[in-house]
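FORM 12-B: Structure-to-Sequence Request
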C-alpha cells in the first residue's frame, strides 16, 4: 500500500507474527520510502517495539530523525513529544527526554501511561526517585481508570519501568 499509516499499522501487527522483526522492519522501510508521513509511528515503533524485541536492529538515528520530522510537521502533536522523549531516553539523553515528556504531559488533559512510564524511567535515572515512583503510580492509575491493561504499549512500558525502578510489576 502507498499509505504511511497502513504501512506502520502493518509493522505493528507484525509483532504478533512468527517473524516480527523482519516483517516490521520491512514495513518501516517501505514507509520511509513513501516519504509521505508516518514519522511519529516510525520513531515510536523503533523506540518501543524494535528496541525491546530486536535491540540489535534498533536504529536510534532513524528514530531520532523521524521523531524530529514528526514534530516539524505537527509541532503541537502531544504523541510526537512523547515519542521524542522515549527516543531521547533510549539514547541516554535523560534531561532532554524528561523535558520532552513533561511537554507531552502539559499538552494533554489526560496524562497517558505511554508518557508517564518513560518519564518515570528517566526521572529514576536522574536520581529523582520519589518523582519517578509517583509517575509510575500515576501511569498505573491511568491504566486502571481507563481499563487500558490490554494495550500492549502500556503494558510493555509499565513492565520496563517497574524493572528500571526495581519494584514489583503492578497488576
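FORM 12-B RESPONSE
SEQUENCE OUT:
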Amino acid at each position: 500500500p502507498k499509505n504511511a499509516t497502513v504501512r506502520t499499522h502493518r509493522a505493528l501487527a507484525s509483532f504478533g507474527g512468527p517473524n516480527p522483526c523482519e516483517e516490521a522492519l520491512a514495513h518501516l522501510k517501505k514507509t520511509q520510502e513513501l516519504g509521505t508521513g508516518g514519522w511519529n509511528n516510525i520513531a515510536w515503533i523503533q523506540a518501543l517495539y524494535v528496541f525491546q524485541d530486536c535491540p540489535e536492529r534498533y536504529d536510534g538515528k532513524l528514530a531520532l530523525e523521524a521523531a524530529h520530522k514528526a514534530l516539524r510537521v505537527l509541532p503541537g502533536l502531544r504523541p510526537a513529544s512523547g515519542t521524542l522523549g522515549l527516543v531521547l531516553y533510549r539514547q541516554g539523553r535523560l534531561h532532554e527526554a524528561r523535558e520532552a515528556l513533561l511537554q507531552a504531559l502539559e499538552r494533554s488533559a489526560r496524562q497517558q501511561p505511554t508518557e508517564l512510564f518513560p518519564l518515570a524511567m528517566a526521572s529514576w535515572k536522574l536520581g529523582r526517585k520519589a518523582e519517578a515512583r509517583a509517575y509510575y503510580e500515576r501511569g498505573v492509575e491511568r491504566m486502571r481508570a481507563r481499563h487500558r491493561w490490554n494495550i500492549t504499549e502500556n503494558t510493555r512500558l509499565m513492565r520496563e519501568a517497574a524493572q528500571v525502578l526495581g519494584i514489583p510489576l503492578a497488576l
